[in-house]
Amino acid sequence: IPALPNISWFNVTSVCICSYRYGITNEPLAAKRYEEVLRSMGHDVTITSCGLLVNPAFPWLGASPDKIVYDPEETSYGVVEIKCPYSLRGTSGAELAGLSFYSKLSDSGPRLDRDNHYYSQVIGQMGVSGLRWADFVIYSGKFILIERIRLVQAEWDALKMKLEEFYFTTLLPYLGGSQ
């Protein structure tokens, strides 16, 4: 990765305001619907908001899942990552089968493409938090998809190595002014 001479920090005005606003507006609705669906399936879940999670073992890495969930069917808490894609806002569940997006649909349910950056995001959230599973949620007003993803330790180890390499060899030197 080359040095970052023209780094620009996240600026909300540089993001498509419509899609950003759609996601912010719909995330609480998605979380409520997620809880309703799990409860209807017999999971007496408790969902909690969280902020930035930092693991004391590697405090240079952080994660901010949308929610933390307790499911008594599991042996630990899990993370919840919610996506409310503006591009799918008017799409029904029946229409999803013909569309190409980051989750594939099959008879066994949705499956997030393992090469997609959202998968890395979820693996990172589990790794940083120390939690062993995550629910990846895709929501529009007309459908909800939920995939429970288990942490694969080798995937987290590989991702952590890449994140640390970027942090220590590129970002930290840049922020310290040595590049």
UniProtKB/TrEMBL annotation:
GO biological process assignments: DNA repair
InterPro entries, per database record: NF-kappa-B_Signaling_Reg, PDDEXK-like_dom_sf, Restrct_endonuc-II-like, YqaJ_viral_recombinase
Domain YqaJ viral recombinase: 19-131
Name the UniProt record assigns to this protein: Putative nuclease
